[in-house]
Prior knowledge:
Organism: Flavobacterium flevense
Radius of gyration: 22 Å
Protein name: TonB C-terminal domain-containing protein
InterPro entries: TonB_C
Order of helices and strands: HEEEEEEEEEEEEEEEEEEEHEEHEEEE
Shape: globular
Number of domains: 2
Structural class: mainly beta
Domain TonB C-terminal: 246-307
Largest sheet: 17 strands, antiparallel
Number of strands: 25
Keywords: Signal
Amino acid sequence: MKTNLLTTTLLLISVSFFAQNKGSKTILLDSLHSITTDKNYSYIRIIEDYKSDKDLYTVLEYYKSGKKSMSATTKDKDKMQFEGTRIDYYENGNKKKESNYVDNKLNGKQIEWYKDNIKKSEKEIIWDNNNKKSIVKIIQFWNKDGQQTIIDGNGQYEEITEKNSDTGTIEDGLKEGIWQGKYNTKCTYIEKYQKGELISGISTDKDNNEYHYTVLESKPEPLKGIRNFYQFVGKNFKIPKEYKSLSGKIYIRFIVDKEGEIVEPKIVKSFNETLDQEAIRVISSYEKWIPAKQRGQFVRVLYHLPITLAGN
């Protein structure tokens, strides 16, 4: 009982401390940076001057410990639309990454550091508007020992962590030739690149099953298309007579699993308890999706959806 009281007290002190700045908005986030409740939050987001009308809003995020985890600016105070410099921090206070955004897309120079403040890499990121993707060039790279292995866009890249590893050649800033490594702890891959473009790849799962692919990853998609999904939600969302005048948004998240089923729906920003439950019912009743793939293997993907209620 004493432990629960202490935990609650610490929580209230922490949240109230960040909420002292008048005009700002405080939001609690879970480990996936989704809006959550007081009980299981991992981060605290502060949007400064929230009540003002501005072109750009300063956004600060903090670890539960109170240490800063991120600072940036956003065009939209209710939905992160990054513009300009974003800096991410390790919990020890050292910089983790410094990036530049244009219209919420990575664009420009990006610098990364290791946890002990040793520089890790310098990259140039270019947004390809025609193909709707980012082109990432590795210009400089240092290993954990501080040895530079890529100089001016040419050299060998090798990064090994507990769960992942990547090894290969960089030419003119882009992947070239054979790359190999592991991901998700027990999966391995070997891929062939030409001027940064994936030519082919083979991945192996924990049971040594092989998967051939020519696309690194694909997003989940409703069998009948995303437009059909939105139409289904709009048509089948039932609003009781006493709530028809209400207007606002319900924010819901769910997982599209490896079989294409919608599972674990959860309200991340409540609007009305009755309408929240209706949102969960409608989303759960939709038919199968085409599941996402990563390196040829089906994977679970978290999906976020705002449901807008216009009111009568």
